[in-house]
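User: For a teaching handout, I'd like to show students what a predicted protein-ligand complex looks like in token form. I'll give you the sequence and the SMILES for MGD. Please answer with just the structure.
Assistant: Understood, here is the input followed by the structure.
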Amino acid sequence: MSKLEITVNHWGVGRARVKDGKLLEVGSHPADPAPSPINGNIASSLNGKARVLRPAVRQSWLEQGALAKACERGREPFVEVRWDQALELLAAELDRVRQVHGNESIYAGSYGWSSAGRFHHAQSQMKRFLNVCGGFTRSEGNYSYNAALGLMPHVVKNYREMVVEATRWKVIAKEVDLVVMFGGIPARSTQVSDGGIGRHRASSDMRACAEAGVRFVNLSPLRTDAADELHAEWLPPRPGSDTAVMMGMAHLLITEGLHDQAFLDRYTVGYEQVRAYLFGESDGVVKDLAWAARLSGLDATRLAELTREMALKRTLITTTAGIQRADFGEQPLWMTVTLAALLGQIGQAGGFGIGYAVNGSFGSAGRPYRAGSFSQGRNPVENFVPVAMVADALLRPHEVYDYAGERMRFPDIRMVWWAGGNPFHHAQDLNRLRQAFQCPETIIVNEMNWTSTARHADIVLPVAAAEERMDFAAGKYDPALLPMPAIAEPPGEAMSEFDIFCALEQRMTGDTLFSEGLSGDQWVERLWEETRAEARRYGDELPTWSDFIAGDIVELEDPEPERVFLADFRADPLASPLPTPSGLIELYSQTIADFDYDDCPGQASWIPPRGISNGDCKRFPLQMISGQPATRLHSQLDNGDYSKSCKIQGREPVLIHPDDAHHRGIQDGDVVELFNDRGRCLAGARLTDDVMAGVVFLWTGAWYDPDFAAPQHRDRHGNPNVLTHDLRTSRLSQGPAAHSAFVELCRFEGELPEIRVHSQPAFTA
Ligand SMILES: Nc1nc2c(c(=O)[nH]1)N[C@H]1C(S)=C(S)[C@@H](COP(=O)(O)OP(=O)(O)OC[C@H]3O[C@@H](n4cnc5c(=O)[nH]c(N)nc54)[C@H](O)[C@@H]3O)O[C@H]1N2
Ligand SMILES: Nc1nc2c(c(=O)[nH]1)N[C@H]1C(S)=C(S)[C@@H](COP(=O)(O)OP(=O)(O)OC[C@H]3O[C@@H](n4cnc5c(=O)[nH]c(N)nc54)[C@H](O)[C@@H]3O)O[C@H]1N2
Ligand SMILES: [Mo]
């Protein structure tokens, strides 16, 4: 007899059918008005051929030890070993590296989303363990909105607070007339919310705005960045030109006296510098709409009409997180704030919002109180690596670099440990990352699946998936508490991270500093009790653990359903100042100007994308955007049925405008080869005029599957990061800039290679 059980992931709640400890399928939960089809990947991937079943060690590492550099990582077979032997090797290697090179030489930045669950969060487990062992070099920032993390504290406030304080859709429906979206607000991105989501509300919240008469304008290279039901006007700017478009609009507002001088005087500093720059007083270039039209390909007259409408109506300007994952990605953010300041509606419903859709709860609801969490302890190592600089750090130990006004030094990394992330998914320029991954003496990866990252490791530890161990979830931004019972058996010898680190601690010291003498299940219950105590402080009585884990979603209330971003500041800027040096919105920042970075000057500036200024765009004329996939979360469960069903001849689809396809002789459904100086990959052609001509879209997340016999180690599968460059947004935030890639493509005429990365790697006995 099969049973129905609850499952929880970053993309929401599901109902799983289970029989004899085996997951059969995961369907939607009745309480969710817009359940995510990504649930359709779970059962097929967890039961799939790519699971890591036993600890495994790269052959020459096992035979010759860490210091042998005989073979290249990623090309060598593995040897499966017993847990005993794996733990013994790990304990000895950790001791060696710590003693010979010190804890700073262990890099455990380990960026990645891992799975939902308060306790079994892979990075927290690993970092706590390594802190008990004397610490490690961490990473700082994220891939999602690093430019915002670096810039916003100088201009407005900490970006993470801005996420929580976003103006709610319900208020927008009532009070806003016009939403102007740079990069749209992709409904596909709202499937996901970090740490879990109880109910998907964003699509219906946006639909309610459209039904209430709110007009949407989608300034994005992709029509579907606005859902059909918003009936948005589509104005596709060339990627990377948004700053220029906003500057042209700002120029028009000032020229026609439509800017709000009273707002600028009371709430901002730096207007004079902005005006001088827009009128070309500093560089001789007038940033008017004719100039913006040349750079963006949009029509100047239409932009002028839109700008006047924005000044007359209650207008919300939104900018996607995706836009700043690009060369000089700080600039469109700063210009968003500048344009909104000129309109003078900040602090009313209207103004600006950065990152709607960066998670499915954004603008829909917030958490009333925090859930319990597993402490990572204290890390005595001070050095860190800005998250996107991992390849730089591995390739250039001791080198000095700039970051946020500081001079920093890369550590000399000897050991890398990754748990809960997939750098061969998330990092740019994967051929360069492959070189960087040859540098350390030892690489350890904890994984569920034989991802490319696992294949580039020396020691791979098999971990249990979320459905295979007990936990609970509480989305970072979502008002719900979600039980995560263990509903399936871990395959082979896979264990939870907690059990792995307990076993390792036993082997190394026999202490219980990591485990505190509790089992995993006892810890989960302890975190639940912490959550209950916190709830009581807010007058909420939560169920007991046994009732909760056997039960269903517990919905909480949004503490601020009427929230308007910066309303307090607008009401009284002296009583509620911003945490900037002036306490005001800084359209010009003396702090940033004093850093003297030409890639991020002291006010929003127009800096063309690198591929345009260095001429790459002439040789590789298509700009490639590699956004978040609709069919999965990043690379997670890419071998699941739903993800695979949307591929073309087994390759990730690439969206191509029919004009760009036809003169290259490409038909819908063909396999194509994308290439540039950095790499090449195969993909499946999907012809559509939803994408603007001159731009191609290749979703992220197809597991990297290099063919070492092919030119540039061609990826067989369609991973865009073989084509993206590994340069940063700017020295201010050192963020990733994936969307600024230029490529060429052609029909693939060769014999179609099989996808190998969805099966087991080669093993020797
Ligand atoms: N070209 C391009 N690249 C991008 C982006 C882009 O727009 N364009 N976007 C970037 C962004 S915004 C992000 S956030 C990153 C995402 O990058 P990542 O977060 O690294 O991507 P995921 O695929 O979520 O990787 C999570 C990994 O953790 C594993 N995992 C899940 N649960 C567990 C567990 O309990 N224990 C262990 N040990 N492992 C587990 C999964 O199998 C998976 O391999 O990608 C970035 N990369
Ligand atoms: N289904 C699903 N949802 C997800 C994720 C996932 O992997 N799958 N990942 C989650 C994560 S980690 C994050 S950070 C968020 C990211 O959420 P988003 O920021 O919404 O996602 P992106 O796909 O990176 O970018 C959104 C859009 O920006 C547009 N864009 C890119 N460059 C430019 C430009 O120069 N100008 C203009 N005007 N538009 C541009 C592209 O058309 C792209 O579709 O999504 C989250 N949601
Ligand atoms: Mo992200």
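For the handout, you might add this sentence: The first strand starts at residue 3 and ends at 9.
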